[in-house]
TrEMBL record:
Descriptive protein name: Large ribosomal subunit protein bL9
Keyword check for Transmembrane helix: no
Organism of provenance: Streptomyces tubbatahanensis
Domain of life: Bacteria
Phylogenetic classification of the source organism: Bacteria, Bacillati, Actinomycetota, Actinomycetes, Kitasatosporales
Keywords recorded for this protein, A-Z: Ribonucleoprotein, Ribosomal protein, RNA-binding, rRNA-binding
PROSITE patterns: RIBOSOMAL_L9 (PS00651)
Amino acid sequence: MKIILTNEVSGLGAAGDVVEVRDGYARNFLVPRGYAIRWTKGGEKDVEQIRRARKIREIATIEQANEIKGRLEGLRVGLQVRAGDQGRLFGSVTPADIADAIRTSGGPDVDKRRIEVGSPIKSLGAHQVSIRLHADVAATVNVDVAAS
């Protein structure tokens, strides 16, 4: 099935790309989650609009990505969350929470869709999070989760 990606999907492509995937993958995963729309002749007009929006958000050069990586890796991010007696969180820390914490601690604006949390953060303490800045550049940020 031919689809148009509306968000970046690792291993598949970036927003605005037209890709061919298996029917079940598109029907059951990509389309319901809003990562893609079905390809149609009328949808080709949407591709240009998606690509323009991607260029505005995208980090243009590797040098710029490396500069942002240096700023992020030198940053210590603290997050205050509600937790139980044994250090377990009520819920988990989301990429949106991490993006807000980076912004409030003086770091650059980071798109929450570029933040990759390996396993869900559900406990207090120090955690490492990866941020994809460019196709070839990723930054690792230390996040300290503390009880509020």
